[in-house]
Design goal:
mainly beta, Porin, 10 strands, 38% strand
């Protein structure tokens, strides 16, 4: 009889300790709201700059690390389910491209350059996996179980829709930067030229993030996001070279200079062909950009409602 009692007691203690490492069903609902900040790097993927080879435009394979710039962000995340979140973010990114930094013959000879600040608002839906481990349920401190189970992790992929502002600037021969859109470098607004582009566009993000959370509230993670945009003019390069004489007459000498600062290493590369067809200045494919950021977050725990006290009438 004593052995039976001891066995039941031991079994109860073991089961109790094992259960401490896991969260109660629905416990995650107390931790739905999270705010976070991020910091990292950004990279432009478009016509200008890139790796020392052709055929890699607009893809991560074309990243030139010398053109990597800074990215900052902040956001708010709401957990709809353990595997599904909705998130809003604001990002400030700097992107840059410079043909002089690549040894690809055509782009190096073209010799165009730009930089731009990007201000981005994005809404996204996130799907993935969140581990269910939690802290020590009964506050039994300084145990291996408590230390291990205070940490959990999340791995999510996401997509969504974003809007952003950009304003490409080019570097003159004296090193000064000048806004390129007012110069109409591809003949925007002139006969046969394209329509003038705006400083605003939309993008579709595709990304993934991984984060580790301590004590259910503090988290550190990494976030990688690639954006496909709906503009070809983040770098002010989109179609063909325009007649420099007409550019200078309409918009001034600086317009013609910034439209074609080529080195002249490839004969006729910026001139019309025998049929009068203008030389290609850029690719009609839409631009994209990518960011890699480290995130730090804080989850706001839902407070318990205070029970109303019944007051005696007497």
């Amino acid at each position: 009889m004593k052995k039976t009692v001891l066995y039941i007691f031991f079994l109860g203690i073991t089961t109790n300790l094992f259960a401490q490492g896991y969260s109660r069903a629905g416990d995650w609902k107390k931790y739905r709201n999270e705010v976070f900040v991020s910091m990292g790097t950004s990279q432009f993927l478009g016509d200008l700059g890139g790796r020392d080879r052709t055929g890699t435009h607009y893809s991560p394979a074309d990243i030139n690390f010398s053109q990597t710039r800074t990215a900052f962000g902040a956001g708010f995340r709401y957990r709809v389910q353990k595997w599904f979140n909705v998130t809003g973010t604001f990002n400030y990114l700097i992107v840059k491209g410079d043909d002089a930094e690549t040894q690809d013959p055509y782009r190096n000879n073209r010799n165009l350059n730009f930089k731009s600040n990007i201000f981005e608002l994005m809404g996204r839906v996130e799907f993935g996996y969140s581990s269910a481990r939690s802290g020590n349920r009964y506050s039994i401190k300084k145990t291996l179980s408590s230390r291990v189970h205070k940490r959990n992790w999340n791995l999510f992929g996401y997509t969504g829709l974003g809007a952003f502002y950009y304003n490409p600037k080019g570097r003159e021969s004296n090193g000064q930067f000048v806004a390129l859109r007012p110069l109409h470098t591809e003949g925007q607004g002139l006969p046969g030229g394209p329509k003038q582009y705006t400083n605003y566009s939309m993008c579709i993000p595709f990304g993934i993030y991984y984060k580790v959370t301590w004590d259910k509230v503090w988290s550190v993670g990494v976030d990688i996001c690639w954006r496909k945009t709906f503009t070809d003019y983040i770098d002010d390069v989109g179609t063909s070279y325009y007649d420099p004489v007409a550019l200078q007459a309409a918009y001034g000498k600086l317009s013609a200079v910034m439209a074609d600062p080529s080195k002249g290493a490839i004969a006729g590369a910026t001139k019309p062909d025998g049929n009068g067809i203008p030389a290609q200045r850029g690719n009609i494919q839409k631009d994209s950009y990518v960011s890699f950021q480290v995130t730090v977050g804080y989850t706001i725990k839902k407070q318990k409602r205070k029970k109303a006290r019944l007051r005696s009438k007497f």
